[in-house]
Amino acid sequence: MKNVLGRPRRLCRPIYFLTVFILFFSFNSSGDQNPSLSASYADSWQLDAIPEGQLEAENPVASGFVFFDLPLPAWARGFRQPVAGAKVPNNEDQLPGAARRYRNGRHEGVDIYCAYGTPIRAAKDGYVLAVSADYHELSKAFRDRLLGIAHKLVSTPAEVTDILHGRRVIMDHGYTNGRWVITIYSHLSEVEQDLKPGTFIKQGRVIGYSGNSGTSQAGTKNQTHLHFEIRVNDHYLGEGMSQKEAGRLYSAVMGGKQE
Q1: Is the distance from CB of 178 to CB of 232 less than 8 angstroms?
Q2: Residue pair 183/173 in contact by the 8 Å Cβ criterion
Q3: pTM metric for this prediction
Q4: DSSP-derived 3-state class of residue 57
């Protein structure tokens, strides 16, 4: 009996199975040569261009995000330290991903300790997105209430996090290659009076002064620091990485070495 092409069926079967075998083998071998990025970061954290063979799959959690040894994508270039002379800390508690057990959350930026009133400068050209110059400190009772809610929820609601940032400035650095990048400068003692949403700020301009607003030390000059945060598409830089990896990443982006 012949098929519709006029060929004996017994000749088609070996060709069919051989074709399936070749496709199966090609699929599996190609997976070894091109390790895929972690699915959880595929939307927001892929590099603009990943040279073949330069990403290792040893740590799949952060495999799509570790680029401190590669050329930085366009959206991650041009940053400078917001505190003159500062370096990215190597203390893991001051880096992204560190546990914040008092509110059942994670640290989402870098803490740069400095003297009270130290000038804080824009890390990159951009526009003021938000400014909370009129921030009022919470009473201890109300602050404890919010922390109690976070404890019961086993996470920190965004509304609570925003309040705990204290007096801050948020800057918009634009949309590049599918990435919207902003920076956050928190716990300020004061901000420059002429700042308002939409104000264009050049890199290096003073936007505020260090303090401890929003923290348990507010009202004193203890534990003064800047909480500096880079966010990309509503994710914090270093998300999903270990604190050590996040520190190396920040160091690469900020153009300097760690302490």
Answers
A1: no
A2: yes
A3: 0.73
A4: coil
DSSP bridge pairs for 113 = 225
Sign of the four-CA dihedral 52, 55, 57, 63: negative
* Spatial distance between the Cα atoms of 101 and 85, rounded to a whole number of angstroms: 31
Structure tokens at 121: 């400068």
Q: Under DSSP, is residue 191 helix (H, G, I), strand (E, B) or coil?
A: strand
What φ, ψ does residue 174 adopt, rounded to 5°? 95, 175
| Phi, psi (degrees; rounded to nearest 5) at 60 | -65, -25
- Would you write out the chain's pLDDT as a tens digit for each of its 259 residues? 444 334 444 444 545 444 544 444 444 444 433 333 233 333 333 333 323 333 333 333 333 444 556 678 889 999 999 999 999 999 999 999 998 988 888 999 999 999 999 999 999 999 999 999 999 999 999 999 999 999 889 888 999 999 999 999 999 999 998 999 999 999 999 999 999 999 999 999 999 999 999 999 999 999 999 999 999 998 999 999 999 999 999 999 998 667 6
